Amino acid sequence: MSKVGDIIARNRKDKKIGQSKMCEELTTLGYPTKVSAYSAWETGSSFPNAEQFLAVCKILGITNIYNEFIGGFNADDPLAELNEEGKKKALDYIHLLLVSGEYKNTSTTISRFRNIKLFDMPVSAGPGTFVDSEDYETISVGSEVPEKATFGVKISGNSMEPRYLNSQIVWIQQTEDLADGEIGVFLLNGNAYCKKLQNNSKGMALISLNPDYAPMKITEGDQFYVFGRVLN
């Protein structure tokens, strides 16, 4: 087992999180991962990319990445020369300064989190279901969600695999205009779909990424509406 994989596995086990749960959390953050792929990270057979690695650290609550994975003295860390008691006192004092409100750097401080609607009824990536505009929850999200996202929905089915997995959350930028080849969320004859739009000389259709599904042709008599563009 590699050092990185060993550290990830240890932190996961300390928090009593199973590998399946880790994959669910990664999918929620926009990084769909199968258990076999995640397991390979822990064994050292493969390594997550930078974004996946940071997402893993977020899920496991690893905030001091340098100390956790590299160790030793970090000259850029002002707390590096303090023992654990000294670090706790320093962090407690920083907390008091922030709570006072007098020492915040207001010129650079931005909100880390924002509220966004997540629809409970899945957008179909298979047979199709209509998204009830009232059936949603409001959740708090951070930088893991694209800034342009207006709302989120859950994929249902496997017609958009391997890019989008069943139950994966996709983040949508609300718009009525999509170009040929873009992936979006659409209403077609009362059913909602997550598909790739074909709009060219071959005609208009909704295309699945899974070749087992045939294109869904759109004709003049169909009820068709664009909900928005998939960002992740």
Write up what this structure looks like.
This protein is α+β, with helices and mostly antiparallel strands. It has 2 domains: 3-68, 434 Repressor (Amino-terminal Domain) (Orthogonal Bundle); 114-230, Umud Fragment, subunit A (Ribbon). 28% of the residues lie in helices and 25% in strands. It has 6 helices and 9 strands, in the order ααααααβββββββββ. It has a 9-stranded mixed sheet with strand order 2-1-3-4-9-5-6-7-8, with no helix packed on it. A hairpin with a 2-residue loop joins strand 6 and strand 7. The model has no long low-confidence stretch (mean pLDDT 82).
Rg (CA only):
22 Å
**N-to-C terminal Cα separation, in Å?**
31 Å
Q: How many strands, what sense, and barrel or not for the largest sheet?
A: 9 strands, mixed
Tell me the total number of β-strands. 9
Task: Indicate the proportion of strand residues.
Answer: 25-35%
The assigned CATH architecture of the largest domain is: Ribbon
CATH topology of the largest domain: Umud Fragment, subunit A
**Structural class computed from helices and strand pairing:** alpha+beta
Helix content: 25-40%
Shape: elongated
Q: Strand order within the widest sheet?
A: 2-1-3-4-9-5-6-7-8
Number of domains: 2
